Amino acid sequence: MLIGDVQGWVDNFVSFDDRFLERIAAAWPSCMAVLPEQAGEDDMTINLVDRLAKDAVVRRLCHWVEYQFEPFGLNPDGSKYSKGIIDLAVLFDWERDRYLAYECKRLNVINGGSRSSLATVYVTQGMMRFLTEQYAEQLPVGCMLGYVLDGDVSFARARISAAIGAHGPVALAEGPTPLEAIETIDRFRTRHTRPTGSQIELRHALLSKLPTVAPHA
After folding, report:
1. Structure confidence at residue 9 (pLDDT)
2. Which of 95, 86, 144, 93 is nearest to 119 (CA)?
3. Which residues contact 57 (CB under 8 A, 6 or more apart)?
4. What is the C-alpha separation between 123 and 130, in angstroms, rounded?
5. What are the two backbone dihedrals, phi and then psi, of residue 205, each rounded to the nearest 5 degrees?
6. What is the per-residue pLDDT for 6?
7. DSSP state string for the chain
8. Are 206 and 158 contacting, i.e. CB atoms less than 8 angstroms apart?
9. 7, 84, 120, 142: least surrounded by Cβ within 10 Å?
10. Residue 141 has pLDDT above 70, yes or no
């Protein structure tokens, strides 16, 4: 739960995301160097969180970086329950209801010589969890990390934009709007209207698994 000016929290979350992505960019090369070319989503996230949790700058920026964080929901009888598992979450203090969520998805997966963009999964099983408030309940900002396995970030971004446009429940209010790249991380943002009427800004970061783009037909 947020106390005080909501826009102030938006500004804080956005500022933190910028600085956090700088540390992700710094950790990314060594993190990916120890993993296979078509690494699994969990393996990539585990290795990334391990490095971020040891990063001196990250330790000054936040309270904790959690792999597979479980936000709690509230039953009518006052008991709590798990709302699912967020791939990566940043906690700023001991308040569990106030966090910045990063949902991680693989993109451009190569299997048997063919490429699957997985952009639809990125939207329906990633972004939509913020729209339904399964993740980031009553919070104004959420983040997506896209692991682009073949290095073709332009293709991944185009497919995501198409998938967003084709999925009405995503309730797009604004965007996709480009953001300034951080190192090699390609970024954009979108704004959405939730069924409750509140809006949420989603910030998207696409990270190339490969050091160079490998275009495909």
Report:
1. 66
2. 144
3. 19, 23
4. 10
5. -130, 125
6. 57
7. ---S-HHHHHHHHHHHHHHHHHHHHHHHHHHHHTS-TT--HHHHHHHHHHHHHT-HHHHHH-SEEEEEE-PEEE-TTS-EEE---EEEEEESSS-TTSEEEEEEEEESEEETTEEE--HHHHIIIIIHHHHTTSSSTT-SEEEEEEEETTS-HHHHHHHHHHHHHH-GGG-EEEEEEEEEEETTEEEEEEEEE-TTS-EEEEEEEEEESSSS-----
8. no
9. 7
10. yes
Q: Which pLDDT belongs to residue 112? A: 83
Rounded to two decimals, the pTM is 0.90
Q: What percent of the chain has pLDDT over 70?
A: 93
| Adjacent-strand bridge partners of 145 | 104, 205
Query: Encoding tokens for residue 101?
Result: 């969520």
Q: How many CB atoms lie within 10 A of CB 15?
A: 11
Q: Evaluate whether 145 touches 101 at the Cβ level (below 8 Å).
A: no
CA distance 74 to 186: 37
Q: Delimit the domains of the chain by residue range.
A: 6-208
Confidence of residue 132 (pLDDT cuts 50, 70, 90): very high
pLDDT attached to residue 78 = 87
- Residue 135: closest CA among 181, 191, 95, 194: 194
Q: Strand pairing of 86-91 and 99-107?
A: antiparallel
Q: Between these two residues, 73 and 118, which has the higher pLDDT value?
A: 118
Taking the C-alpha atoms of residue 19 and residue 12, their distance in angstroms, rounded to an integer, is 11
